[in-house]
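I'd like us to work through together how a protein chain folds, taking it slowly. To get us started, please write out a protein record for me. Go ahead whenever you are ready, and we will take it from there:
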Amino acid sequence: MLLVFIVGSVNPKLLGVAKKVKEYRPSDFEILYTYLSLFSEIILLPNTVSEVSNLLDHYAGDRRQNCMELLAILTSSRSEQYVASDIAAQQPEYMALGITDAALLCALGKDIYLLTSDLNLYLAALYRSHEAQHFDDLRD
C-alpha cells in the first residue's frame, strides 16, 4: 500500500499502468488517501520502506526520482518502528509470509492498525487478534 501511496501521490495516472501497481486505479489512490487521513499517525517499518525502494527500481528517469524523493520525505516525517530480523524470523508465520510480513506482525499492537492488500498477511493479523483492514474491503 505504501507503493500505491507513493506512486499515486506522484501521479495517480500511473496506477493501472506502471509496473508493480497495474492492479490499482486512480480511484484506489483516492480511497487510500481518504482512509489514511482518518489516522493521526502512520508508522513505517524499515522492511517495508526497503521493499518499496527496491520496487521503485523498476521505474526510470523523473518518475523514479520523484517517487524516491517522496519516499525520503515520508520516511523523515513518519514514525519508524524497528523489528529485529532475528525476532521476525522466529515468528511462526515467517516461513510462509517472509521477513517483512513477519516483522509487520511483530509490530502490531494495541494501538497499531494494519492496512494491507496481502490476503495472507491480513488473515495472519486477524488470527493473532490484531486490528487489520484488507484494502479490497475498502474498495467495495
Notes: The mean pLDDT is 95. The longest strand covers residues 114-116. The beta strands are 43-44, 79-80, 114-116, 132-134. The chain is about 55% helix and 5% strand.
